[in-house]
Amino acid sequence: MDSITRLLNDSMGWQGRAGERMAYYLVRARPKLNKLGELEKLLIERAFEGLRPFGQALSAGLAGARVGAEGLALWEEEDYCSPPLAMERAAVLDTYFDDIEVEPVKAGQGWRRIRELPRLFSSLPVQRTED
Fold it and tell me: What fold characterizes domain 20-130?
């Protein structure tokens, strides 16, 4: 775990929450175009995967993100937080996206709805969750 990941985990007190029910969301967000190259590089480096408890799911979701109407990024995300994506926004999403909205979906439903759209990061490998 790198020092940035450790600092974020320790300072925010992020721990997994046993017994809490997982929720799934279709996320729509406006990418900050001047930050997309940086985000893609960090995803390639797997920089967020060590963030607890959401790093692996967030990384997989962003790696599979699609481009929809008006240039919005879309992906399915799993989350425990209330409000949705609170920790993900604080640590990562608000740096790279504006106008973040979520729509509750069943697991896999979001990916099925957006699978035909072009990928936001075509250089990243396809993740199992988006097949």
Answer: Alpha-Beta Plaits (3.30.70)
